[in-house]
Design goal:
heterohexamer, A: alpha+beta, Alpha-Beta Plaits, four-stranded antiparallel β-sheet, 3 helices, 7 strands, B: mainly alpha, 16 helices, binds adenosine-5'-diphosphate
Chain lengths: 113, 409, 409, 409, 113, 113
């Protein structure tokens, strides 16, 4: 099993969700983050004091999947999240050792779906 | 001390000042309503900008209307010693404050249409031109020193149609004017980034805060009673009917918007405003039931007009100021010529043709003036933020400050 | 122009209209206070609903009170030409607006008790029945056309107890009525999901926003001075004592609530309201020190009453409207019979027995009417959201819109 | 009923009560503005505290000013039967309410300077001493029963400088007083944790909410017209010039702050307040253009003064109340002696020396009194939260409640 | 060492914290997320435009633990977070290679506790 | 590749970002969390009901890096985030198997930077 984490542009979320659904991926956990990458930063002032800010709003999606879903999930995200602008985001894949469904106590491949 | 005998004259003058003060301050307070209505209806990245735009517009309006606008509209200026002002110009000063509130609505209305992408200072300049020249000219023709020539009781219009143009509290003079001045600005600016896809699909941009939007609407509704009732200009002419009609039209707007929008909170709170926009013109001559119908009509106009404008015509009028003030305001001007008739229980003395004619003139005048001013500004300084600035949002790009600085990361 | 001589008559009439307008608008503004008090005291998923409920209740109230309620209560209707209204009905029209504000408090009070789980339209219907029929009946008996028969100065009550029922600004007629109408609704609805466990343990549901709650309280407090002072009905009868007593009772309520709740912000801001609820009835006859005591008593009633109701009696009265308006309102009605006596520095002319009697009658009347109306609605259409809808929250389930749409994921 | 003839006497009295009521309520409402201005300008962990501080200060102020302050300042108390109060003390009661609003500004001003780290009750006690004793003493000397002896028209000052001290609506008596009372409190408290590093580098603490800050500013601005205009004390003396000058100074403050701060929203909204603070003293004698200049000067003072104080002098005056009220208030007192002269189009009858002298006396008096009261409280009970409490934030440490309890994790 | 990530119903957080404390687990990092799984979605409208929303509020807890704490931690969460409703959530376990305490620079098993 | 996750005091974020920039690390994803560790808890009351709260505001930074950047990144964070107080936070390192740049589809070491 793998945990797939994608950082995307906020306004691509709906499209990504739709594309994932097509790929059969309907479970996910989503939250708002700020990110900095190749996008330029900017300066913020408060009452005359300036400081450098270079974090822009992004949305982070975390999806636990079985091995055979890894590539379809990545493909779905890449195709839907791509806008062609700098700042489109990244996908990270990490190993996932266990997955437990709280309601039933089920484990593993059954639990993840 | 206040038990000492007071001459009726002095009491009457004091009460007039009080009456006008209450009206002026209520209208001033409405501008906080404009600010919150906009802040709630834009993205968080544009809330600070909404706030500062309204404040700046008020300040610029005060200066230009004091220096140019009010003298044009009413032929009154204040270049005399304080002693003279205090002695014989008390009511004039209050009238200035009151009518400034009306004038300053013009940039406040426009503000909501051009939100999230307009440059700050070019827009402030446009506001200054409108409040200093464009609006006062029309004000002079309807309520001011040119009304005898233009649209007033003894004008050509009155002799042609049998009655002067009737706009008690500004459905046409203020709201329609503001809405139709905004339209060319919105068109010239173009939609916000990513508002419509290249293929022309509409991708609505969600608003930031319904509570702020509702707060803005409430402040506007409350202040509106000053706007309409204090249009009497002095206490002896105050009319309770104006208050009751404003109430009924607001309620008509609420109910219509609520029903037609299936209880959408954005529409409901704007529906109240639509009703109030439309009732201004005839608030002194409608029957309360007529006012209700006029308000309900305005509510419907907004609920159906807003998606027509933003979804079908693909005009990115962020707060819907053209349907809200432009269309509902024009509807109010015309409706005064219908529901103001005795046939509909109204007070009469109003001509449908006169209402239609001047409402039409106002539309043309405003649209042309708006196109001219924003067109020239666009060609000279540019009126739109750079792409990168718009992406960051006007709060950071213009004011270097977010709405919630503590939460910045 | 305002320098032309003005007849005293006309000045007096204009000033009366102004006086009533200010009161009416201040009370109208209080409804924004109800909206924000509720929005802050519920979860975020119910903020939009709080906003739209109050707006809808106001709109429905206006229509039914115009058509039915006001004619019942005062025997006045407005089915005459605008010309007639303007000619001789100016004060009537302002009275309608003013007393509508009182009447519309009924659904606004109930709204806070039934929050987060009630259906929208059945509740709006209930509000319509209360404002159109139930409240006007009681209003007629105390302030209106039936007061001579029922509780007024020449009624059986007065001949029995020596004085008519005294409720200057509605502790009983408005607030107690609203609170006791709400109680059966709250009981019939039952608590919100997960508010109490199956074993009966209370699991408090945290509120969304103290600043919104405080904003609501502030708006209400400010508007309340219109509520109480403009109850005079005309400027010649205005009483500064009413203003001072309202102030003192509010302060008493704040201090008591603050001390007894260990500086809890929710209680402190509601304590101010408790004091104001209780002072309405006797605000014209208390000594300021008496008003302070009455207000402090109300603050204490709320601080101890709210947990009693929600924790021990397990009644999920979300904003605590029964203790706040029902209990404190009844306390105010009775307190007028105590601290209004000359013994306590009051103005006298009030009977303890009369106060107690009518306060009791009001409680019974309201509770019965509430049980009837909500009982019937519950059996016919149902008054509660489906489980799934309640889980989503009324904002999404009813209005398809969250408080912060931009932050939706 | 209101069509019955009304004696002019009675109308005049009623109108006076109404006039004062409007003023009093507008000033009362300003305290909501203080609360939101502070809530927006502190961190989220201090928003609840801001709210409750202002409410508590108002309540404590009412009690002590009723019992001690007002009797000291004006020689008026209300220990008579309600019948007596109603009969002959109507205006006195309204004056109490009006001037209480002024007095209660003192702790509300201080509150913003000491925010986020002061203990609640010791601060409330300090507020009580200021409103009960310190402020009334100065009030008595300028506007009250000692004005003949001290700074009034027939005082030693007037005989020395040719004119009494002129402070129409309290630039010095209220604002400068509040700002200079706050300064020692801020110094004794010391800066918030981590506000400056050990090496003395300033690490600004970002504010929580620009919309709340702006809401506070708007409420204050609106209410200010009551503050200034109703300082007339009765309707016959109302002056439209006061309203116009307040408007012009506010606009001056906005524009100056906006330009000098490069469109910073915090400064812009505080600039409006700076202008209003400064105009109070001479609002009845300036020419509108003079008022604009005075307001613009105040806006500049705040924009340059705030960073000077907080960045260079390393005084952690959270809202900048010393520059805003202390410096701009003193500027207003002195400016009345300049722009009030006929030379600048003013009404004249004012002495620069008198203005300078009493403004100076006020500074010394306030600073000393503040140092004394806070010094004693600091040595006895301590005025600052414990470190751990400050880290948690006053909301949790004092009120056991966060601004958004639902979002707590 | 493992990183345990649990997505739970917001109103179970207090109980979960209490149960974890009983199991000797007192360190954690918590944040609000939105999730979709087997729970039904709903429709949102803004000014006449509808879009599908199917994310519901959840709370995410991340806990870094030594091996011997893995099972007790999972058990504690499962027992406390279970409400029996759809939407009770999931637990994910991923390998954790290093853990550093910032204050002291300590590493590994010492740092984690 | 590794995923580095640091939980730090909110007011150290700016310094940490600056220090990371010096170490050549400019890409990151940041979000607000609440944490509990060795810091004391406190009690919250709502209308007379008390409950225990022991989560304090923190900021979480997630950085995907190539192997040779792991130690410099950790060092940068430790040195900048350290305030010497309890509550300074933790750094967690987990294995990162894949990294995809959405805009280009690039994978691995190229994508991460
Ligand atoms: N190495 C990284 N570690 C953590 N987050 C990253 C990393 N690289 C990118 N991100 C996240 O992805 C977002 C987009 O990255 P960016 O480099 O701007 O996009 P692009 O790769 O399309 O140019 C960033 O804002 C950040 O949140
Ligand atoms: N495969 C997954 N990947 C990421 N998050 C998941 C996954 N499955 C479930 N979740 C999270 O757990 C939450 C509860 O899942 P759900 O399927 O509704 O619960 P249950 O398994 O009890 O029916 C979801 O809202 C989501 O946040
Ligand atoms: N084992 C852990 N698992 C997850 N988060 C942790 C763990 N230990 C600490 N944290 C996070 O780090 C923050 C600081 O931890 P704390 O123990 O207070 O700091 P310190 O180690 O400096 O004493 C906590 O608030 C929490 O967010």
């Amino acid at each position: 099993m793998k945990m797939i984490e994608a950082v995307i542009q906020p306004d691509r979320l709906e499209v990504v969700k739709a594309e994932l659904a097509k790929a059969g991926v309907r479970k996910m956990t989503v939250f708002r983050v700020k990110g900095c990458g190749q996008q330029m930063g900017y300066t913020e002032t408060y009452r005359g004091r300036r400081h450098q800010v270079n974090l822009l709003p992004k949305v982070c999606i975390r999806i636990g999947v079985n091995e055979d879903y890894v590539q379809p999930t990545i493909d779905a995200i890449v195709s839907a999240a791509r806008g062609g602008d700098i700042g489109d985001g990244k996908i990270f894949v990490t190993p996932l050792e266990r997955c437990v469904r709280i309601r039933t106590g089920e484990e593993g491949s059954e639990a993840i779906g | 001390m206040s038990d000492s005998p007071v001459s009726v004259m002095r009491l009457a003058r004091g009460t007039d000042v009080l009456f006008l003060l209450i009206g002026a301050v209520m209208i001033f307070a409405m501008h906080a309503g404009f600010a919150f209505l906009e802040a709630g209806s834009v993205r968080r990245q544009s809330q600070v900008n909404a706030m500062n735009k309204i404040v700046a517009d008020w300040a610029v309006s005060t200066v230009v209307y004091f220096l140019i606008g009010f003298p044009i509209a009413r032929g009154i200026q204040f270049w005399a010693e304080a002693g003279v002002l205090v002695g014989s110009r008390q009511i004039d000063m209050m009238h200035f404050f009151l009518y400034l509130g009306f004038a300053a609505c013009i940039p406040a209305i426009i503000s909501g249409g051009i939100a999230e992408r307009a440059k700050f200072w070019t827009n402030a300049v446009a506001g200054g031109v409108f409040v200093g020249l464009v609006y006062p000219l029309f004000e002079a023709c309807t309520w001011g020193q040119l009304s005898g020539l233009a649209f007033g009781e003894n004008s050509w219009l009155a002799s042609w149609t049998g009655a002067g143009f009737h706009d008690y509290a500004g459905s046409v003079v203020v709201h329609s004017m503001g809405g139709w001045l905004a339209l060319p600005a919105i068109l010239i600016l173009g939609p916000r980034r990513r508002r419509y896809t290249a293929e022309g699909t509409s991708v609505p941009i969600p608003v930031s805060s319904i509570p702020f939007l509702a707060l803005g609407s409430w402040i506007l509704c409350v202040g509106w009673f000053g706007f309409n009732v204090m249009s009497a200009g002095r206490i002896a002419d105050v009319s309770a009917l104006v208050a009751l009609n404003s109430l009924m039209a607001m309620v008509g707007g609420i109910l219509a918007a609520m029903l037609f929008s299936h209880n959408d909170a954005g529409f409901t709170h704007n529906g109240a405003l639509a009703g109030l926009v439309a009732v201004c013109a005839g608030s002194d001559i409608f029957h309360p039931a007529g006012a209700f119908v006029v308000g309900a009509g305005a509510g419907a106009i907004f609920v159906f007009g807003f998606p027509m404008v933003t979804e079908r015509m693909k005009i990115d009028d962020v707060l819907g100021v053209w349907p809200l003030h432009g269309l509902c305001g024009s509807w109010g001007g015309i409706a005064a010529g219908i529901f103001g008739q005795r046939l509909f229980g109204g007070l009469g003395g109003v001509s449908f043709v006169a209402q239609l004619t001047v409402t039409g003139i106002a539309v043309l005048f405003a649209f042309t003036a708006g196109a001219l001013v924003y067109g020239v500004l666009n060609m000279t300084f540019g009126i739109r933020l750079a792409d990168q600035e718009e992406m960051l949002g006007p709060d950071l790009a213009i004011h270097h400050l977010e709405a919630s600085p503590e939460e910045a990361l």
